[in-house]
Design a protein that fits this description.
The chain has 230 residues and is α+β, with helices and mostly antiparallel strands. The protein is built from four helices and ten strands.
Length: 230
């Protein structure tokens, strides 16, 4: 806790530099520092600043960046006790999440059969909606992007959108029929009101095209959004 953001980032950079010098053929998977403390805190802010610096060390040739710290934070910004019992060290379930999160990246870096199949043009995309997506929507204030995590179980869909660093919006009443889906997402407004977004769309391979319908100050709005599988 006594080290500054710059000191921590410099330490990580020094380790990566030494690895590259001593083991030039080695591929380095550089992980973002995990969030810590039960609730949002200045320490989490410091972690975020460090991650913003050290991710620039990745060149996608020898050093590969991956950030899945959001998997350890729930929709209200707290870290569940069953993932980090002391809000610093992972539980068994926490380590399972870690392993699952790096599996695809490791496969790609190591050049296993999955990567070779992708390079040959074979379809290796997971079926349906299950997976991590990059969600995008154009707004009057510019393009908004955010992580979207989905899980499909038969005709049921669950998941969440990332609203900001510490908050997620849960998907409710998620349904899928063939390649068409629908769900609702609710978020609280500063005035205490709750906005409900009705979302419908289609998934085709690794791409989603959809619409979000809501009512704002008595007026119905309809916005288009897209997502690509990560």
């Amino acid at each position: 806790e006594d080290n500054t953001v710059e000191q921590i980032a410099d330490g990580v950079a020094a380790i990566v530099k030494q690895l590259r010098e001593k083991l030039p053929q080695t591929k380095v998977l550089l992980l973002a520092i995990f969030p810590r403390s039960e609730n949002p805190s200045p320490q989490r802010g410091k972690v975020l600043q460090v991650n913003q610096i050290i991710q620039k060390l990745a060149d996608d040739q020898n050093v590969f960046w991956i950030d899945f710290g959001y998997k350890f934070v729930n929709s209200v910004g707290t870290i569940p006790h069953d993932l980090m019992p002391d809000y610093l060290h992972l539980s068994r379930r926490g380590y399972e999440i870690w392993a699952e999160a790096i599996e695809d990246k490791l496969s790609a870096v190591l050049g296993d059969t999955r990567l070779k199949a992708e390079q040959s043009g074979a379809d290796v995309s997971p079926a349906g909606l299950t997976g991590e997506w990059a969600w995008t929507m154009d707004t009057p204030n510019g393009t908004v992007t955010a992580p979207l995590i989905l899980r499909q179980d038969g005709e049921k869909v669950t998941g969440k959108f990332r609203r900001d660093e510490n908050r997620w919006l849960e998907i409710e009443n998620g349904k899928v029929n063939g390649n068409e889906f629908s769900w609702i997402v609710k978020r609280d407004r500063p005035n205490g009101e709750t906005m409900t977004y009705e979302m419908t769309g289609k998934v085709e391979g690794d791409a989603i095209t959809a619409k979000a319908r809501t009512t704002l100050d008595g007026n119905e709005t309809l916005k288009e959004w897209t997502a690509k599988r990560k």
